[in-house]
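Submission checklist for the structure archive. All mandatory fields must be present; incomplete records are returned to the submitter.

[x] Identifier: Signal transduction histidine kinase internal region domain-containing protein
[x] Organism: Larkinella punicea
[x] Residue count: 342
[x] Sequence attached
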Amino acid sequence: MNARFSFRQISGIASVIVAVLVNLPLIRLANQTQLAVIPGLPDTVFLVVRVLFHIAFTFFFIELNRYVLIRKGYEPRLNLAGWYGINFLLFLGINALFVALVLPWYPERPILVFVTTYFRGFFVWGTALLVANFLTVLQQNRSMQTENERLKRESLQAQLDGLRAQLNPHFLFNSLNALSSLIREGSANTQPYLSKLSQVLRYSLQVQNRELVPFAEEMQFTMAYSFLLTMRFGANLQIHNELPTEASWLIPPMSLQLLIENSVKHNVISNVKPLTIRLAIDPSGAFIRVSNGYQPKPEPADGTGTGLPNLENRYRLLTGKTIQIVRTEREFSVHLPLIPAV
């Protein structure tokens, strides 16, 4: 709720208020007649016991229902009506125990004790359910707000990581070095390389404020980025892209680039050990599979180590799905859930 009261403290305060209000007529009556008189002591004790019972009764039902409703504990075995049926049976049973406890004080008035206990208990129980539902809604709203704030933070972090992946000094240095070599050699690939480099830099800036992009746009960017890498590493790096260039899917921007960049960063690429990266649809048809030969560098690559965790968090927060990471002795692969366009 706020910095001063927790939900449990609010439940306790509400329980005291409900118990006092429901017993207020008896409190006033006792005060006017027997409260200060010794012969009235049994009635006074009974009133105190009733108030304490209703406090505990209310608190129990508020917390029980709040706990179950927040966690949907009645599913899948029971529906909501079934859960409230259990609530009602608990109401009957607890009040029956209270009647059995106080009846010896008033053996001559069993019907009165029974009726008044269940009459007041019913209103206390109903009020407890209302308070529990009210607190549940508030708690869910607070959780939603917290999750939204977390999504914003994760999205911002992912955007910054994506921007760094493209504009970090190593990337620019390597790209400009390769471009300089092409220019010196008078290679026919100079203009295509410059065009692809411009496309990569432009896309990385355009998607910074977008959570999902059309798959076709991501594919154009991925192919441009792959072209730059193959120009840099030559025959030592093979990127086999078997994904459709046109598909009605959505994807978090720069997801495929991040996985390709991770493969290049963490694996040996040489004449002796060329690296092959493959992008394809998983046989199940539910995932995009990005895989590479598992040939890790002897020394860990420089980096923050947040790329894959951020990508996984983006998928979980945006779609409720998680990515799958599979590592074997020969291969490392990441499976991205397909996100259909609405």
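[x] Structure attached
Curator remark: The chain has a mean pLDDT of 81. Residues 121 and 334 are 58 Å apart (CA to CA).
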